[in-house]
Amino acid sequence: MEVGRIRDELTKDWIEAAHAVENSHVGHLGGPEKFGQMIWAEADRRGWGQAADTEVVGDGAPWIWNLAMDYFYAGWHVVDWYHAKEHLASVARTLKGDDTPAMKQWLNSRATVLFQGRASRIAQELETEAKDQPALARELQREAGYFHRNQRRMQYQELREDGWVIGSGMVESACKQFKARFTGPGMHWSRSGCERLIPVRAAIMSQRFDELWRRVYNSPPN
User: Fold this and answer.
1) How far apart are CA 58 and CA 81, in angstroms?
2) Contact criterion met (CB below 8 Å) for 74 and 51
3) Residue 155 confidence (pLDDT) above 90
4) How far, in Å, CA of 110 to CA of 127, rounded?
5) Domain ranges of the chain
6) Which end of the chain is more exposed for a tag (fewer CB within 10 A), N or C?
7) What percent of the chain has pLDDT over 90?
8) What is the pLDDT of residues 81-124, one digit of tens each?
9) Whether the Cβ atoms of residue 173 and residue 8 lie closer than 8 Å to each other
10) What is the Cα–Cα distance from 34 to 22, expressed in whole angstroms?
């Protein structure tokens, strides 16, 4: 990671924040078990086991955190800030209406609370609202559960102050690059053809295509 200047979305001030560099990628068409093995193999190749501190960033999907506990149990586990804020925005629309001044005010105030690492406070507030508004109870209880389950993974202010990333923008960008290669106009793929090309695409994006080519075709080094 490197530290650079970005504009803070809450305060609008310029701040120093970490961002990922020298990224490498893996891809898999299938379930999480094989994907987890591939991620671990790449992390191990890059020296995960020798790192003093480590971090896993993902959204709130349970399968991601199951893999994190299986392969990357030490270090920080972090729910992507923008995914977490999307959940807040959904609640704000439910409670205050879509794109209303009250909705924006509620969202901004709770985003500050969330950034400070107090997701449990938001969960408690939503549980109270669910009791007071039975018609909205199911959605509010679902979102309360999301913040309650992930509260340990939402220490955003502490993470940023310590120089860690709090967003998964590099992953979102990589997904878009994969998608652009496989979903262009007129493209049609068999499953086997797609599976064969995914490692090639990952190698190109990781700046490791020459290494892959030599390994697969046993070509002598130049």
Assistant:
1) 9
2) no
3) yes
4) 15
5) 2-77+163-172, 82-153
6) C
7) 68
8) 999 999 999 999 999 999 999 999 999 999 999 999 999 999 99
9) no
10) 24
Of 47, 58, 52, nearest to 74 (Cα)?
Answer: 52
- Euclidean distance between CA atoms 147 and 60, whole angstroms: 9
pTM for this predicted structure: 0.82
Give the residue carrying structure tokens 């262009």. Answer: 184
Closest CA to 145 of 122, 119, 123: 123
The answer to whether the beta carbons of residues 31 and 54 sit under 8 Å apart is: no
Question: Is the separation of the CB atoms in 221 and 209 below 8 Å?
Answer: no
Query: CB of 163 within 8 A of CB of 3?
Result: yes
For residue 10, give the nearest of 93, 114, 101, 86 by alpha carbon.
Answer: 114
